[in-house]
Amino acid sequence: MRAERAKVAVRGTVQGVGFRPFVYRLATQMKLNGWVLNSAQGVFMEVEGDRDLLQSFLLRLEKDKPPRAVIQNLEFSFFNATGYDHFEIRYSDPSGQKMVSILPDIATCAECLREIFDPENRRYRYPFTNCTNCGPRFTIIEALPYDRPHTTMKRFKMCAACDHEFHDPCDRRFHAQPNACPRCGPRLALWDSRGTVLAEEEEAMVRAIEIVRQGQILALKGIGGFQLLVDARNANAVQRLRARKRREEKPFALMYPSFDLVSRDSDVSELEARLLLAPEAPIVLIQRRSTASQIVPEVAPASPSLGVMLPYSPLHHLLMRDLRIPVVATSGNLSDEPICISEYEALKRLEGVADYFLVHNRPIVRHVDDSVVRVVWNRELVLRRARGYAPLPVHMKTTLPDILAVGAHLKNSVALSVGKEIFISQHIGDLETSEAFSAFRRTTADLPRLYEAEISVVACDMHPDYLSTKLAQNMQAPLHQVQHHFAHVLACMAENELEDPVLGVSWDGTGYGTDGTVWGGEFLRTDEESFRRVAHLRQFRIPGGAAAVKEPRRAALGVLHEIWGNNLMIDPRLAPVVSFSDSELLVIRRMLSKGINSPLTSSAGRLFDAVASILGVRQRVTFEGQAAMELEFAILSATDEAYSFGISSSSPSIVDWAPMIAEILIDLQESKPVGIIATKFHNTLSEIIVAVAREIAVPDVVLTGGCFQNRYLAERSIRRLSEVGFKPYWHQRVPPNDGGIALGQVVGAARSALATPQPKGAEV
Ligand code: ZN
Ligand code: ZN
Ligand code: FE
Q1: Ligand closest to the CA atom of residue 123
Q2: Do residues 540 and 619 share a domain?
Q3: Is residue 503 part of a domain?
Q4: Residue 327 lies in a domain
Q5: Are residues 466 and 540 in the same domain?
Q6: Distance from the alpha carbon of residue 199 to the mean position of ligand 2, in angstroms
Q7: Separation of 322 CA from ligand 2 center, angstroms?
Q8: pLDDT at position 95 over 70
Q9: What is the pLDDT of residue 93?
């Protein structure tokens, strides 16, 4: 097995507790090479060795750490080995710049947890307990430096006992800015849907638990905003939440009272367990057991996996310990809107959604959703980057100008470079509603203000109609537009510290191409400043344009029309054909043959849609990516077979999927199981990637774009590329979907700014 390098950052109580000698002993004992270093921001290390050894090193780093060490945040990514020949303790350069670093919100630590369940402790059952090692951070900071007067805790004057802890260097709460206790800190209240106070403190908690048990919908003000809680065993309650939230089928996340209960319902791997229990406490997508009987199907219809998290604040711990049941814990919003942060806003926006509101009087400065991760190829892959992760930076090798990137349109996040760091904002969401757009505008102002940046370039997408592009155009600084799929590739390169050239396999639903058509099945070869589109999937028309993304059956007709022209109605039994009426078919046929409102696309996401429709898996979707997701769920990985495809020798090469579609239709005619066809389809996509990689012959291959949220596609492509001698790279702590675009935009703008220095105030 080829050696890899793990880069690890540990934040928390890791200084002056013997952490570095411990790391040294552990590494040398395990025969791993590299170094460890202490700095103002924490302990950093690079460790090289076999992947399996590195994984167990990381696990032991947490398990066997010195007794007084507390890890608030353990961040790691994997890179190519550089060839260290021994392990050493390095000394930090005291002249090195002290980069202000704002920590993410950190899940309740073990000691605070003990205190809130200890009847003898003065914080017994206090829902806002925290210490230097845990508690809210990013969600309460108004400005830097991170001192109490700069947080929303400024309105609470510490009592004598808290003040003493705060000033005692030997206390766990020495300089714990959000320090609080039942005497002096924030308080809990239960409101009805009109905002009338029904109960306070302990009584509020007791009644909130009853409310959930009775199947009603509780809005809970958490760390980064409101969550909606409902009994996950109660089909009616979950159904009512779906109707009220206007969320038809998209899976809901769950919060379980304990890890033991999670492992009773799901198969949890060692790494998944680590993620569930990590200080980031994200939602982890895990495989449910068929015997997971208590979770009603309405929670995640048609899904073999569950999105699960564990309690991460004292309030959650107290509630869940007494509830003793898994609950749906979903963002407090209507579909596609950002999460509510203030109780008055929540009363208004969640009117008719929540029955009761469990609130407190500690203001939240910025919305931060629960993060979502899944394990791919035995590594963490972040799908939604928010609580616990934002705003931690991606570290670059060179100093960048201050660049603000405004991201894409869906799953928006923004990014900002300061020095060698690129800070990535929390997930904002789809810029489809006015609420989302104002959250986006707040965040574009918030990040530069927090880090005192002087924006020299604003980076955005090339799509002329994106609201993010329009906002960027109206900003004062010079504009730099970065092609969408190139931004995906640059994000993945930055995260993996890769240099040019790479072959970027950038596959997603949609992105504006340099030729004005819709791209999405792209192979880009990077060079110093820019990229060359070396290959792409064969284009086809989507009848109905952008609105058709809700109807995979339209993509199917587009694909069939591309192959057989107007003879597409030849097989009237095909699922997409059956789903339309005769008159609808006539209209669509005319649209396709005349090219009316039927834009051309090379999108891999739409090809997934087309195949899902042809297989009868799904004709219409209620959320983005649903058809592709269900096609992934359909996989029966019982075959290594793949379908045929062609690659033209033109420039760019065109990958022709028509032979694959023809063979799929034959398999259908022969009544092959859908699970087998779905598997062969995924296998074909991996073979396409391998074939193009061979054609282009660049050793480093980057897999990026929303399609690589698909675990089967990602893992199979990684495996196949490695087998034939390529080095595959994929995302880890930055999402492969459009949540990673802003990072890539910063890098894209920096490349051209560093190549050709722009005078300030240059032409926009
Ligand atoms: Zn704590
Ligand atoms: Zn106090
Ligand atoms: Fe994209």
Answers
A1: 2
A2: yes
A3: no
A4: yes
A5: no
A6: 22
A7: 25
A8: no
A9: 55
Whether 658 and 609 map to the same domain: the answer is yes
Indicate if 461 and 568 belong to the same structural domain: no
Read off the pLDDT of residues 656-690 as tens digits, 9 standing for 90 and up. Answer: 999 999 999 999 999 999 999 999 999 999 999 99
Residue that is last in its domain, among 339, 372, 405: 372
**Residue 99, pLDDT score:** 52
Residue linked to tokens 């705060």: 166
> Minimum-distance ligand to the CA of 180?
2
Q: What is the tally of structural domains in the chain?
A: 4
Dist. CA 738 → ligand 3 center (Å): 5
Ligand nearest to the CA of 491: 3
Residues with CB under 5 A from ligand 3 (ion): 508, 511, 738
Distance 319 CA to ligand 2 centre (A): 22
| 227 CB burial (10 A radius; 0-12, 13-18, 19+) | buried
This prediction's pTM = 0.92
Expressed as residue numbers, the domain containing 257 is 188-372
Got the DSSP string for 411-423? Answer: TB--EEEEEEEEE
Taking the centre of ligand 3 as the mean of its atom positions, its distance from the CA of residue 487, in whole angstroms, is 9
Residue 638 located in a structural domain:
yes
Domain boundary among 89, 115, 136: 89
Q: Are residues 329 and 346 in the same domain?
A: yes
Domain harbouring 750, CATH code? 3.30.420.360
Same domain, 278 and 205: yes
**Whether residue 336 is found in the same domain as residue 450:** no
C-beta neighbour count of 748 within 10 angstroms: 26
Q: What separation in Å is there between the alpha carbon of 464 and the centre of ligand 3? A: 15
495 domain residue, yes or no: no
| Token pair recorded at residue 316 | 């959650």
Q: Is the model's pLDDT at 89 over the cut of 90? A: no
Give 139 Cα–ligand 1 centroid separation in angstroms: 17
Which residues sit opposite 37 in a β-bridge?
44, 90
Confidence of residue 753 (pLDDT cuts 50, 70, 90): confident
The owner of tokens 């306070």 is: 200
Residue at 250: amino acid letter: K
Surrounding residues of ion ligand 1, Cβ less than 5 A: 109, 112, 131, 133-134
The string of DSSP letters for 725-756 reads: T-EEE--SSS-SSGGGHHHHHHHHHHHHHHHS
DSSP secondary structure string for all residues of 579-612 = TS-HHHHHHHHHHHHHTTT--EE--HHHHHHHHH
DSSP-derived pairing of the beta strands 403-405 and 457-460 = parallel
Q: Which among 706, 740, 26, 25 has a CA at the least distance from the CA of 390?
A: 740
Say yes or no: 481 and 564 in one domain: no
- CATH code for the domain in which residue 232 is found: 3.90.870.10
Q: What is the DSSP string of 157-223?
A: PPPHHHHHHHH-TTSTTTT-TT---TTTS--EEEEETT--EEEEHHHHHHHHHHHHHTT--EEEE-S
* φ, ψ of residue 336 in degrees (nearest 5): 70, 0
Contact in structure between 383 and 370 (CB atoms under 8 Å): no
Distance between Cα 506 and ligand 3 center (Å): 8
Q: If you measure from the C-alpha of residue 516 to the centroid of ligand 2, how many angstroms do you get, rounded to a whole number?
A: 61
With a pLDDT cut of 70, the percent of the chain lying above it is 96
Which residues have beta carbons under 5 A from ligand 2 (an ion)? Answer: 159, 162, 181, 183-184
Q: CB under 8 Å to 455, separation ≥6 — which residues?
A: 402, 403, 404, 448, 475, 476, 477
Q: Calculate how far, in angstroms, residue 386's C-alpha sits from the geometric centre of ligand 1.
A: 21
